[in-house]
Amino acid sequence: MEFEFTSIFFVTIALALGGVLKGATGAGAPVLAVPVLTMFFGVKFAVIVMLMPNLLTNIWQSWAYRASQPSRLFVWSFAIAGCVGVVIGTAMLVTFSQATLTILVAIAVFVYIALRLAKPDWKLELALAKLLSVPAGVAAGFLQGATGLSAPVSMTFINALKLDRAGFIASISVYFSFSTLPQIAALWYFGLLSWTNLAISLCAFGVISLFMPLGAALAKRLSRQAFDRLVLILLAVIGCKLLWDAVSHVA
């Protein structure tokens, strides 16, 4: 795999913006980083690069916001179910072609955008969320394993509860950190993970964590609505580019 200056530059920018988004909302770094990484290096490499950022930033947030969990039963059933889905999704990562995986990432991006726009004010009651936590966790884990991007299910599901920022971070960070562990094991088992890739993933963690404080500061000054709209516009552009690349590759 060749690393050119242009690709490294844009990937670094994507990781930095992902760190800003992570610091501002408590989640979402892969939403920006994975599509850009996929454009330059493919889905498999994108999934691997985001392993350490997903694991380490979310372990810290899980601990820092542990007192704000809305329900331990809900949070942990969602996270454990995600582990099952991740293993299934990782098997698909090994099996599917690069074009198919790229299309899956693009679809995941557009589904996430559509859900955010279609039902911005709908609220999911916690009692119902507890019942749906296992199937939702498996679905989110599958997307995480196969595409490195679980946001269409995980973030939308948690966001539908209309929790405050602390409650949202407490819930989503447990899912992200816990489901990353079997993902690492599965990637190693299937021969996709190496010490070199882990080192690159740690560098990605460094970039993201460096920009997280900036996101936290911006969250206090910019309206959440304005920030969300900017992110959705960026995602739409990236999603279109991914679809174009996938269709061109097939043609």
Fold topology:
Elements: H1 5-25, H2 29-41, H3 43-49, H4 51-64, H5 72-95, H6 98-118, H7 126-147, H8 154-159, H9 165-189, H10 195-219, H11 224-250
Descriptive account of the structure:
The chain is mostly helical and 251 residues long. Helix content is 82%, strand content 0%. The radius of gyration is 17 Å and the shape is globular. It starts with a helix and ends with a helix.
What are the key terms here?
mainly alpha; 251 residues; single chain
Broad shape = globular
Share of residues in helices: over 70%
Low-confidence parts lasting 5 or more residues at pLDDT below 50? none
Give the termini separation. Answer: 23 Å
How much β-strand is present in the residues?
under 5%
Q: Give the overall pLDDT as a whole number.
A: 86
Summarize the structure.
This protein has helices at 5-25, 29-41, 43-49, 51-64, 72-95, 98-118, 126-147, 154-159, 165-189, 195-219, 224-250.
